[in-house]
């Protein structure tokens, strides 16, 4: 038995006869589904509440929904600015005018160091103006674009800027940019004087739905990505979708990969919103964008409020990521993360169908929804042996045993441990073939 399975109720485990050939599936933290009738793979009880909300699905029913999330869909759809609490520790403000929520964190004399990507000048100017009108002292420090921001030399440069400014424990770091900028800003804040406040202003879709919320901060080393980091939660996260208007379409679409992931693991309404109008969801100005972001952030918030350090439930956020990380490795990070996650979800779905936990219609839905926004659903690069070796190296793998999150129905996850090698190979063949 895997150590992390220790807390799972024994009556929800898969029958032993399946374990030899197919590996073992345990209920993940999603809403429980009725026993699978096709293959008899899952022996768990019927779902207790088929009307469970996304929040309940994400939180496995053992934690209260986060903040405004508890107020439900009506509030969600009518409020232009949404506030999502992360465990009561900090809020994520999403929607037009979100920047106004910075004011509560400013005060006379407080220094604010804005660490920002190039090209975000208008937003940086607005932040500095707000700081000045609150009587604070706004400072700016530009960092390189994208992954180049996450180098130790950039970290040292930011420390030097803080030192020159006489930055104290009472001051505030603000990260402005995509996930690379907020990862760096968070790590600067975590390490300066052993931890100062920081606020994230993510300007990319992937940044807001994945990187800026959750408290993981970090930089890269020559040996690999994100090898150095700290858990350090922001004081707030602010995101106005209007900031994304300048994003390139491929970057925006890549972010949708993580949004769609949230749909499959916890909130099928996300899938319905995308299916209803795949064009609108590629437009940051469309009202549905605020809705999609808020729904995705709510899931992450509910997961991380209970599992900051990734011990259990946070695992569901890794849906599609085992295969995605392998693609990223063998492609030397030339693939956008959300694109790799899209293919990774199709791989996991192909696997889930073969193990007997997913119906083929849900697999087809993976391909159709991803394809509708222009995300890739197949991979024709490295061969299976290279990808299999890369999966074994993934830091989330435990020893030789591969672990996958699989989806049994939209919004319901299970854990698949040690699937049969032949099925992995079949799933690979299916994603490398064009459909
Ligand atoms: N901390 C976490 O939990 C976590 C989770 C997921 C990803 N990440 C990290 O996030 C990074 C990926 O995030 P990302 O895709 O946002 O990367 P990024 O910051 O490199 O941004 C991608 C590109 O989009 C551009 N961009 C961002 N906002 C823009 C805007 N408003 N207009 C025009 N261009 C804009 C950036 O300049 C960059 O070129 C990686 O470093 C990854 O490790 C962290
Ligand atoms: Zn991801």
Automatic annotation (TrEMBL):
First-level EC class: lyase
Free-text remark on how the cofactor is bound: Binds 1 divalent metal cation per subunit. Can use either Co(2+) or Zn(2+).
Cofactor: Co(2+); Zn(2+); NAD(+)
Reaction equation(s) it catalyzes: 7-phospho-2-dehydro-3-deoxy-D-arabino-heptonate = 3-dehydroquinate + phosphate
Coiled-coil residue windows: none
Keywords for the protein's UniProt record, in alphabetical order: Amino-acid biosynthesis, Aromatic amino acid biosynthesis, Cobalt, Cytoplasm, Lyase, Metal-binding, NAD, Nucleotide-binding, Zinc
UniProt key word Cytoplasm: yes
EC number, UniProt record: 4.2.3.4
This protein's record includes keyword Zinc: yes
Domain 3-dehydroquinate synthase N-terminal: 142-250
Annotated Gene Ontology cellular component terms: cytoplasm
Entry's Gene Ontology BP terms: amino acid biosynthetic process; aromatic amino acid family biosynthetic process; chorismate biosynthetic process
Major localisation: cytoplasm
Residue ranges of the region described as Disordered: 1-78
Low complexity bias spans: 43-76
Alphabetized InterPro entries for the sequence: Dehydroquinate_synthase (IPR050071), DHQ_synth_AroB (IPR016037), DHQS/DOIS_N (IPR030960), DHQS_C (IPR056179)
Occurrences of domain 3-dehydroquinate synthase C-terminal (ranges): 255-397
GO molecular function: 3-dehydroquinate synthase activity; metal ion binding; nucleotide binding
Family, per entry: Belongs to the sugar phosphate cyclases superfamily. Dehydroquinate synthase family.
Purpose: Catalyzes the conversion of 3-deoxy-D-arabino-heptulosonate 7-phosphate (DAHP) to dehydroquinate (DHQ).
Name this protein carries in UniProt: 3-dehydroquinate synthase
Organism, scientific name: Ornithinimicrobium ciconiae
Origin organism lineage: Bacteria, Bacillati, Actinomycetota, Actinomycetes, Micrococcales
